Amino acid sequence: MDRLVQLPNGPAADRRSCLRYPLTLELRYSVSNGRAPAATGAGRLIDLSNSGLRFVAPEFLEPGLKLDISIDWPILLDGRVQLQLIATGVVVWSNRTATAIQIHRHHYQTLNLGLNVAAG
Q1: Average of pLDDT values for 42-52?
Q2: Is the dihedral of CA 54, 50, 91, 117 positive or negative?
Q3: Among 2.40.10.220, 3.40.50.620, 3.40.50.1220, 2.40.160.20, what is the CATH number of 21-117?
């Protein structure tokens, strides 16, 4: 039987189960501790998937930190309403060049009215 899918092998094989999309967008984050944000910052998105995202931050973010992230989405709803992607997740790794989080929840909201739009 022929294989329909050729999977990469070897040490360079990507183990991610979700496709990552390269995007260069500004983002804002806050470290969530259950009450008021402990710290806030801004960064630049590198890539995004439905289960995680990677971004450049001006500081080291400790693995295990819970982050709330907002990204101004580049596509307008109905061609006229600005959207924001709101994501909550946990830092899985961070180094001098990037930080990665595993997304636990996400949704879109409008900037104009603050109405929630169901995530796809």
Answers
A1: 96
A2: positive
A3: 2.40.10.220
